[in-house]
Design brief:
The protein is an all-beta fold. The chain has no helices and 35 strands. The chain has strands spanning 6-11, 14-15, 20-26, 37-40, 43-44, 46-50, 54-58, 67-72, 75-76, 80-81, 83-84, 86-90, 99-100, 106-109, 122-125, 131-135, 141-146, 152-156, 161-165, 171-175, 181-186, 192-196, 200-204, 210-215, 224-227, 233-236, 244-249, 255-263, 268-270, 276-282, 285-291, 297-302, 306-312, 316-321, 324-329.
Length: 339
Protein backbone atom coordinates (compact mmCIF):
# COMPACT_ATOMS: atom_id res chain seq x y z
CA UNK A 1 0.00 0.00 0.00
CA UNK A 2 1.64 3.24 -1.15
CA UNK A 3 2.68 5.50 1.74
CA UNK A 4 1.53 3.06 4.40
CA UNK A 5 3.39 2.97 7.70
CA UNK A 6 5.64 -0.04 8.28
CA UNK A 7 6.44 -1.80 11.56
CA UNK A 8 9.92 -3.31 11.78
CA UNK A 9 10.04 -4.32 15.43
CA UNK A 10 8.06 -4.17 18.68
CA UNK A 11 9.79 -4.24 22.06
CA UNK A 12 9.05 -5.80 24.37
CA UNK A 13 7.23 -8.48 22.40
CA UNK A 14 4.70 -9.11 25.18
CA UNK A 15 2.65 -6.89 27.46
CA UNK A 16 -0.23 -6.63 29.89
CA UNK A 17 -2.86 -3.88 29.76
CA UNK A 18 -1.15 -0.69 30.91
CA UNK A 19 2.26 -1.89 29.75
CA UNK A 20 4.30 0.24 27.37
CA UNK A 21 5.81 -0.92 24.09
CA UNK A 22 8.13 0.77 21.60
CA UNK A 23 7.39 0.37 17.89
CA UNK A 24 10.23 0.90 15.43
CA UNK A 25 9.55 1.37 11.72
CA UNK A 26 8.89 4.05 9.17
CA UNK A 27 6.15 6.38 8.01
CA UNK A 28 4.97 7.34 11.51
CA UNK A 29 5.49 11.09 11.25
CA UNK A 30 2.42 13.33 11.15
CA UNK A 31 1.43 14.64 7.72
CA UNK A 32 -1.58 16.50 6.39
CA UNK A 33 -2.76 16.96 9.98
CA UNK A 34 -2.85 13.18 10.41
CA UNK A 35 -1.16 11.55 13.39
CA UNK A 36 -0.21 7.97 13.93
CA UNK A 37 -2.77 5.76 15.64
CA UNK A 38 -1.86 2.45 17.27
CA UNK A 39 -4.34 -0.40 17.52
CA UNK A 40 -4.12 -3.66 19.44
CA UNK A 41 -6.63 -5.82 17.64
CA UNK A 42 -9.50 -3.39 17.19
CA UNK A 43 -8.77 -1.33 20.31
CA UNK A 44 -7.09 2.08 20.07
CA UNK A 45 -4.07 2.71 22.28
CA UNK A 46 -2.76 5.86 23.92
CA UNK A 47 0.30 7.05 21.93
CA UNK A 48 2.72 8.73 24.34
CA UNK A 49 5.53 9.50 21.90
CA UNK A 50 5.42 9.82 18.11
CA UNK A 51 8.31 10.33 15.74
CA UNK A 52 8.92 9.39 12.11
CA UNK A 53 10.55 6.06 13.01
CA UNK A 54 9.41 5.38 16.56
CA UNK A 55 6.21 5.21 18.58
CA UNK A 56 5.65 4.48 22.26
CA UNK A 57 2.17 3.28 23.16
CA UNK A 58 0.42 1.85 26.20
CA UNK A 59 -1.59 -1.35 25.83
CA UNK A 60 -5.25 -0.39 26.47
CA UNK A 61 -7.61 -2.20 28.80
CA UNK A 62 -9.63 -4.78 26.92
CA UNK A 63 -7.03 -5.24 24.19
CA UNK A 64 -7.22 -8.64 22.57
CA UNK A 65 -5.78 -10.50 19.63
CA UNK A 66 -2.14 -11.12 18.91
CA UNK A 67 -1.25 -8.20 16.66
CA UNK A 68 -0.56 -4.46 16.69
CA UNK A 69 -1.10 -2.06 13.75
CA UNK A 70 -0.19 1.54 13.01
CA UNK A 71 -2.77 3.60 11.12
CA UNK A 72 -2.13 6.90 9.33
CA UNK A 73 -5.45 8.29 8.17
CA UNK A 74 -6.91 5.79 5.69
CA UNK A 75 -3.81 3.59 5.39
CA UNK A 76 -2.38 1.17 7.91
CA UNK A 77 0.60 -1.07 8.42
CA UNK A 78 0.60 -4.81 8.12
CA UNK A 79 -0.17 -6.42 11.51
CA UNK A 80 2.84 -7.20 13.67
CA UNK A 81 2.60 -10.05 16.21
CA UNK A 82 2.62 -9.34 19.94
CA UNK A 83 1.65 -11.48 22.94
CA UNK A 84 -1.02 -9.82 25.08
CA UNK A 85 -1.93 -10.90 28.59
CA UNK A 86 -5.54 -11.89 29.24
CA UNK A 87 -7.04 -11.21 32.65
CA UNK A 88 -8.48 -14.36 34.20
CA UNK A 89 -9.41 -13.01 37.64
CA UNK A 90 -9.48 -9.71 39.50
CA UNK A 91 -10.47 -8.29 42.90
CA UNK A 92 -7.55 -10.19 44.41
CA UNK A 93 -4.55 -9.11 46.49
CA UNK A 94 -1.48 -11.11 45.47
CA UNK A 95 1.82 -10.10 47.06
CA UNK A 96 3.92 -12.70 45.24
CA UNK A 97 3.84 -15.37 42.58
CA UNK A 98 0.92 -17.76 42.07
CA UNK A 99 1.21 -21.51 42.61
CA UNK A 100 -0.05 -24.19 40.20
CA UNK A 101 -0.78 -27.82 41.02
CA UNK A 102 -0.35 -30.87 38.78
CA UNK A 103 -3.93 -30.60 37.53
CA UNK A 104 -3.52 -26.99 36.39
CA UNK A 105 -5.38 -25.35 39.26
CA UNK A 106 -3.99 -21.93 40.15
CA UNK A 107 -3.74 -20.62 43.72
CA UNK A 108 -3.57 -16.93 44.51
CA UNK A 109 -3.91 -14.87 47.68
CA UNK A 110 -6.12 -12.11 48.94
CA UNK A 111 -3.48 -11.02 51.43
CA UNK A 112 -4.93 -7.81 52.89
CA UNK A 113 -3.12 -5.26 55.03
CA UNK A 114 -1.02 -6.66 57.86
CA UNK A 115 -3.34 -7.74 60.66
CA UNK A 116 -6.44 -7.53 58.46
CA UNK A 117 -8.75 -10.57 58.51
CA UNK A 118 -10.39 -10.91 55.10
CA UNK A 119 -13.40 -13.16 54.31
CA UNK A 120 -11.44 -15.30 51.84
CA UNK A 121 -7.65 -15.45 52.11
CA UNK A 122 -6.86 -17.90 49.30
CA UNK A 123 -8.59 -18.53 45.98
CA UNK A 124 -8.42 -21.51 43.64
CA UNK A 125 -8.80 -20.89 39.91
CA UNK A 126 -9.64 -23.97 37.88
CA UNK A 127 -8.12 -24.72 34.45
CA UNK A 128 -11.24 -23.26 32.80
CA UNK A 129 -10.71 -20.07 34.88
CA UNK A 130 -13.54 -20.52 37.36
CA UNK A 131 -12.62 -18.64 40.56
CA UNK A 132 -13.51 -20.44 43.79
CA UNK A 133 -12.95 -19.46 47.45
CA UNK A 134 -10.49 -22.02 48.84
CA UNK A 135 -9.25 -21.00 52.31
CA UNK A 136 -10.84 -18.53 54.72
CA UNK A 137 -8.95 -18.78 58.02
CA UNK A 138 -5.41 -17.58 57.20
CA UNK A 139 -4.22 -14.13 58.21
CA UNK A 140 -2.10 -12.28 55.61
CA UNK A 141 -1.13 -15.21 53.36
CA UNK A 142 1.99 -14.16 51.47
CA UNK A 143 4.19 -16.80 49.82
CA UNK A 144 2.84 -19.85 47.98
CA UNK A 145 4.63 -22.99 46.79
CA UNK A 146 3.54 -26.50 45.82
CA UNK A 147 5.34 -29.34 47.57
CA UNK A 148 6.26 -32.58 45.88
CA UNK A 149 3.74 -34.21 48.22
CA UNK A 150 0.95 -32.43 46.32
CA UNK A 151 0.20 -30.10 49.22
CA UNK A 152 0.22 -26.30 49.01
CA UNK A 153 2.49 -24.48 51.47
CA UNK A 154 1.57 -20.93 52.50
CA UNK A 155 3.49 -18.38 54.58
CA UNK A 156 1.64 -15.85 56.73
CA UNK A 157 3.58 -12.69 57.41
CA UNK A 158 1.24 -11.64 60.24
CA UNK A 159 2.36 -14.33 62.69
CA UNK A 160 5.35 -16.02 61.01
CA UNK A 161 3.61 -19.33 60.42
CA UNK A 162 3.73 -21.78 57.52
CA UNK A 163 0.57 -23.72 56.71
CA UNK A 164 0.20 -26.96 54.76
CA UNK A 165 -2.99 -27.27 52.74
CA UNK A 166 -4.36 -30.50 51.33
CA UNK A 167 -5.81 -30.68 47.80
CA UNK A 168 -9.33 -30.70 49.27
CA UNK A 169 -8.71 -27.47 51.21
CA UNK A 170 -7.85 -28.61 54.75
CA UNK A 171 -5.30 -26.26 56.31
CA UNK A 172 -2.98 -27.20 59.18
CA UNK A 173 -0.19 -25.18 60.75
CA UNK A 174 3.10 -26.79 59.72
CA UNK A 175 5.69 -24.54 61.37
CA UNK A 176 5.86 -21.32 63.41
CA UNK A 177 8.45 -18.80 64.50
CA UNK A 178 9.45 -17.62 61.01
CA UNK A 179 9.43 -13.89 61.83
CA UNK A 180 7.72 -11.90 59.08
CA UNK A 181 7.48 -14.91 56.77
CA UNK A 182 7.22 -14.08 53.06
CA UNK A 183 8.77 -15.95 50.09
CA UNK A 184 8.89 -19.76 49.89
CA UNK A 185 10.80 -22.24 47.71
CA UNK A 186 11.61 -25.96 47.81
CA UNK A 187 14.99 -27.33 46.78
CA UNK A 188 15.40 -30.61 44.91
CA UNK A 189 15.82 -32.57 48.16
CA UNK A 190 12.50 -31.38 49.59
CA UNK A 191 13.86 -28.76 52.02
CA UNK A 192 11.68 -25.65 52.34
CA UNK A 193 13.27 -22.19 52.35
CA UNK A 194 11.49 -19.24 53.95
CA UNK A 195 12.32 -15.57 53.63
CA UNK A 196 11.89 -13.57 56.84
CA UNK A 197 11.47 -9.94 55.82
CA UNK A 198 13.76 -8.78 58.61
CA UNK A 199 16.74 -10.39 56.87
CA UNK A 200 16.94 -14.17 57.41
CA UNK A 201 16.50 -17.04 54.98
CA UNK A 202 15.50 -20.16 56.92
CA UNK A 203 15.96 -23.75 55.74
CA UNK A 204 13.46 -26.31 57.03
CA UNK A 205 14.08 -30.00 56.56
CA UNK A 206 11.38 -32.56 55.91
CA UNK A 207 11.67 -33.45 59.61
CA UNK A 208 10.84 -29.77 60.33
CA UNK A 209 14.22 -28.96 61.81
CA UNK A 210 14.95 -25.25 61.25
CA UNK A 211 18.32 -23.78 60.26
CA UNK A 212 19.44 -20.24 59.43
CA UNK A 213 20.58 -20.63 55.83
CA UNK A 214 21.63 -17.06 54.94
CA UNK A 215 21.33 -13.47 56.11
CA UNK A 216 20.47 -10.53 53.83
CA UNK A 217 19.55 -6.88 54.11
CA UNK A 218 16.01 -6.44 55.50
CA UNK A 219 13.27 -5.92 52.91
CA UNK A 220 10.59 -3.24 53.01
CA UNK A 221 7.93 -5.58 51.66
CA UNK A 222 8.79 -9.23 51.06
CA UNK A 223 11.43 -11.64 49.93
CA UNK A 224 10.80 -13.64 46.77
CA UNK A 225 12.65 -16.94 46.29
CA UNK A 226 13.31 -19.29 43.37
CA UNK A 227 15.77 -22.10 42.72
CA UNK A 228 17.74 -22.22 39.48
CA UNK A 229 18.01 -25.49 37.51
CA UNK A 230 21.58 -25.80 38.86
CA UNK A 231 20.43 -25.62 42.50
CA UNK A 232 21.34 -22.07 43.53
CA UNK A 233 18.75 -20.03 45.42
CA UNK A 234 17.91 -16.61 43.95
CA UNK A 235 16.30 -13.94 46.11
CA UNK A 236 14.85 -10.47 45.65
CA UNK A 237 13.54 -8.13 48.33
CA UNK A 238 12.87 -4.43 47.76
CA UNK A 239 14.75 -2.16 50.15
CA UNK A 240 15.17 1.61 50.37
CA UNK A 241 17.51 1.54 47.35
CA UNK A 242 16.36 2.44 43.84
CA UNK A 243 19.15 0.29 42.42
CA UNK A 244 18.18 -3.12 43.75
CA UNK A 245 19.97 -6.45 43.75
CA UNK A 246 19.17 -10.01 42.81
CA UNK A 247 21.00 -12.29 45.24
CA UNK A 248 22.45 -15.68 44.36
CA UNK A 249 22.98 -18.05 47.29
CA UNK A 250 24.96 -21.25 46.83
CA UNK A 251 23.80 -24.58 48.32
CA UNK A 252 26.35 -23.93 51.08
CA UNK A 253 24.66 -20.62 51.99
CA UNK A 254 27.27 -18.32 50.44
CA UNK A 255 25.60 -15.05 49.43
CA UNK A 256 26.58 -13.18 46.28
CA UNK A 257 25.06 -10.49 44.07
CA UNK A 258 23.97 -11.86 40.71
CA UNK A 259 22.64 -8.58 39.29
CA UNK A 260 22.34 -4.99 40.44
CA UNK A 261 20.21 -2.30 38.85
CA UNK A 262 16.51 -3.20 39.10
CA UNK A 263 13.70 -1.10 40.47
CA UNK A 264 11.60 -2.83 43.14
CA UNK A 265 12.31 -6.43 42.04
CA UNK A 266 9.73 -8.93 43.24
CA UNK A 267 8.49 -12.33 41.98
CA UNK A 268 10.93 -14.74 40.30
CA UNK A 269 10.73 -17.71 37.93
CA UNK A 270 13.23 -19.75 35.90
CA UNK A 271 12.84 -21.33 32.49
CA UNK A 272 14.44 -24.64 31.54
CA UNK A 273 17.50 -22.96 30.07
CA UNK A 274 18.37 -21.16 33.27
CA UNK A 275 17.07 -17.71 32.32
CA UNK A 276 15.66 -15.85 35.32
CA UNK A 277 12.52 -13.69 35.04
CA UNK A 278 11.96 -10.93 37.58
CA UNK A 279 8.95 -8.67 38.12
CA UNK A 280 10.27 -5.12 38.44
CA UNK A 281 11.70 -2.32 36.33
CA UNK A 282 14.86 -1.82 34.31
CA UNK A 283 15.99 1.60 33.12
CA UNK A 284 12.59 3.03 34.06
CA UNK A 285 10.70 0.44 32.00
CA UNK A 286 8.32 -1.64 34.10
CA UNK A 287 7.33 -5.23 33.53
CA UNK A 288 9.16 -8.56 33.53
CA UNK A 289 12.92 -8.57 33.07
CA UNK A 290 14.80 -11.59 31.74
CA UNK A 291 18.28 -12.15 33.18
CA UNK A 292 20.37 -14.68 31.27
CA UNK A 293 22.82 -16.97 33.13
CA UNK A 294 25.45 -14.35 32.21
CA UNK A 295 23.33 -11.63 33.88
CA UNK A 296 22.36 -9.94 30.60
CA UNK A 297 19.15 -8.01 31.24
CA UNK A 298 16.20 -7.22 28.96
CA UNK A 299 12.57 -6.24 29.52
CA UNK A 300 10.57 -8.99 27.81
CA UNK A 301 7.02 -8.06 28.92
CA UNK A 302 5.62 -4.62 29.64
CA UNK A 303 3.26 -4.07 32.55
CA UNK A 304 2.75 -2.15 35.76
CA UNK A 305 2.17 -3.29 39.35
CA UNK A 306 3.43 -6.81 38.59
CA UNK A 307 4.31 -8.72 41.76
CA UNK A 308 4.88 -12.29 40.58
CA UNK A 309 4.82 -14.90 37.84
CA UNK A 310 4.88 -18.62 37.12
CA UNK A 311 6.19 -20.16 33.89
CA UNK A 312 4.34 -23.32 32.87
CA UNK A 313 5.57 -26.19 30.67
CA UNK A 314 2.56 -25.55 28.41
CA UNK A 315 4.26 -22.40 27.03
CA UNK A 316 2.14 -20.16 29.22
CA UNK A 317 2.95 -17.66 31.92
CA UNK A 318 0.71 -16.68 34.81
CA UNK A 319 1.38 -13.13 35.97
CA UNK A 320 0.04 -11.54 39.14
CA UNK A 321 -0.40 -7.81 39.61
CA UNK A 322 -1.37 -6.25 42.91
CA UNK A 323 -5.06 -6.93 42.23
CA UNK A 324 -5.42 -9.45 39.38
CA UNK A 325 -3.95 -12.43 37.56
CA UNK A 326 -3.25 -12.68 33.83
CA UNK A 327 -2.48 -15.49 31.42
CA UNK A 328 0.12 -14.91 28.70
CA UNK A 329 1.27 -17.24 25.91
CA UNK A 330 5.06 -17.56 26.09
CA UNK A 331 7.59 -20.17 25.08
CA UNK A 332 10.14 -21.57 27.53
CA UNK A 333 12.65 -18.82 26.80
CA UNK A 334 10.12 -16.10 27.47
CA UNK A 335 9.71 -15.10 23.84
CA UNK A 336 6.16 -14.54 22.58
CA UNK A 337 4.48 -17.32 20.64
CA UNK A 338 3.32 -16.23 17.19
CA UNK A 339 0.78 -18.86 16.13
Amino acid sequence: MNGAPRIESVKPGAALPGGEIAIQGSGFGSRNHTRAQVQFGTTDANVMLAAENRLIAAVPEGASGGAVRVRMGTVESAPYPIALGTQIADNLHPVGSPAVDSEGNIYVTFSGQRGQKVPVSLYKITPNHTVKPFITELMNPTGLVMGRDGYLYVSCRHDGTIHRISPDGRATQWIEGMGIATGLAFDGAGNLYVGDRSGTIFKIGEDRQIFVFATLEPSLSAYHLAFSPSGDLFVTGPTTSSYERVYKISPAGEVGIFFRGLGRPQGLAFDRRGNLYVAGSLGGKRGIIRLTPRAEAEVVAGGSNIVGLALLPSHRALITTNNAIFSLDWDVEGLPLHG
